[in-house]
């Protein structure tokens, strides 16, 4: 039977929703509306004079090869962060779910990176991979003969920001996968084991399909994270370099608006970025969710 909540007072549901609606309006809808208005204007660096230019900012952006190249950079970065982050977190969650002794300590250590600020995470990875004093770069050079230099090599720079972003987000993914694995009925696993199914077959045929809602949720969250929440990591590590090879869309909004003084152009970039993320989220819910087993 379908269960519904009925309120005697018609205003009570709205009163319960009011705090969240106020927060969303103040911190999302109002800034988004301001960005749309500013994207149709041209302002000086100090915001003292404003001129209405309509869609000129958008036309200039779509005709800029450097801005169009940032779409490719963002796509590569977001795919790597989402896929690698989800895969590693799932692997760690499977291992943690099988540990009997010290499981609490093991899981606690894997949650620690989530408490680290993105800028701090970027600085940590920057020091580890520094071409001059980095522990990891020194090990790569002396043990494997691999000369790491993210200041000159764009592939190394992309690898650095992807590794830092994945490390920062992996705890979040890990928590949800552990919770999902614990919700899988042990009777199904035991029945498959009695039938002779090996651990890999039990995971692939039973646990992974039942984790599809969690995986889909984390896919959406990780894509949004890669588009928005990785700005501090990139600013602390590569600052969009070498050249503009790691300047994803959210970093370019900051660079052109704050450092370049193009407030109208950066507002137009933020509007485009917002609609891109909304479109990606809709596509994921429209097509990817079909493969989810609830």
Question: How is the topology of this model organized?
Answer:
Layout: H1 12-39, E1 41-43, E2 50-52, H2 56-62, H3 65-98, H4 103-111, H5 118-128, H6 135-144, H7 154-182, H8 186-194, H9 199-210, H10 212-229, H11 231-237, H12 249-259, H13 263-287
Antiparallel strand pairs: 1-2
Helix pairs in contact: 1-13, 2-13, 3-7, 3-10, 5-7, 5-11, 7-10, 8-9, 10-13, 12-13
Task: Explain how this protein is built.
Belongs to the binding-protein-dependent transport system permease family. It comes from Pseudaquabacterium inlustre. It is a multi-pass membrane protein. With 294 residues, this protein is mostly helical. It has helices at 12-39, 56-62, 65-98, 103-111, 118-128, 135-144, 154-182, 186-194, 199-210, 212-229, 231-237, 249-259, 263-287; strands spanning 41-43, 50-52. A two-stranded antiparallel sheet has the order 1-2. Helix 3 packs parallel to helix 7 and helix 5 (118-128) runs parallel beside helix 11. The protein is globular, with a radius of gyration of 23 Å.
Which bin fits the share of residues in helices? over 70%
Describe the main β-sheet briefly. Answer: 2 strands, antiparallel
Q: What is the count of β-strands? A: 2
Order of strands, main sheet, comes to 1-2
- Overall outline: globular
- The helix-and-strand class reads mainly alpha
Distance between the termini: 18 Å
Order of helices and strands: HEEHHHHHHHHHHHH
Task: Report Rg.
Answer: 23 Å
- What's the overall average pLDDT, rounded? 89
Any key phrases for this structure?
294 residues; mainly alpha; two-stranded antiparallel sheet; 13 helices; 2 strands; MetI-like; transmembrane helix
């Amino acid at each position: 039977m379908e269960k519904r909540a009925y309120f005697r007072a018609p205003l009570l549901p709205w009163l319960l929703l009011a705090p969240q609606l106020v927060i969303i309006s103040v911190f999302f809808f109002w800034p988004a509306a301001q960005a749309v208005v500013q994207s149709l204007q041209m302002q000086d660096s100090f915001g003292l004079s404003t001129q209405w230019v309509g869609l000129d900012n958008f036309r200039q952006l779509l005709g800029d090869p450097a801005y169009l190249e940032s779409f490719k950079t963002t796509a590569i970065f977001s795919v790597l962060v989402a896929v690698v982050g989800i895969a590693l977190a799932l692997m760690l969650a499977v291992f943690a779910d099988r540990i009997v002794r010290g499981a609490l300590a093991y899981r606690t250590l894997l949650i620690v990176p989530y408490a680290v600020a993105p800028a701090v995470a970027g600085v940590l990875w920057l020091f580890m991979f520094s071409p001059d004093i980095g522990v990891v770069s020194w090990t790569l050079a002396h043990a494997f003969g691999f000369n790491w230099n993210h200041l000159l090599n764009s592939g190394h720079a992309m690898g650095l920001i992807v590794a830092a972003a994945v490390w920062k987000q992996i705890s979040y993914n890990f928590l949800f996968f552990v919770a999902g694995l614990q919700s899988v009925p042990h009777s199904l696993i035991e029945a498959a084991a009695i039938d002779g199914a090996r651990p890999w077959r039990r995971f692939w045929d039973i646990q992974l399909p039942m984790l599809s809602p969690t995986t889909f949720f984390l896919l959406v969250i990780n894509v949004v994270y890669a588009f928005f929440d990785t700005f501090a990591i990139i600013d602390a590590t590569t600052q969009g370099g070498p050249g503009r090879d790691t300047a994803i869309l959210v970093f370019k909004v900051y660079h052109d608006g704050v450092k370049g003084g193009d407030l109208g152009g950066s507002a137009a970039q933020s509007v485009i970025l917002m609609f891109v993320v909304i479109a990606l989220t809709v596509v994921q819910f429209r097509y990817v969710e079909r493969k989810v087993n609830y």
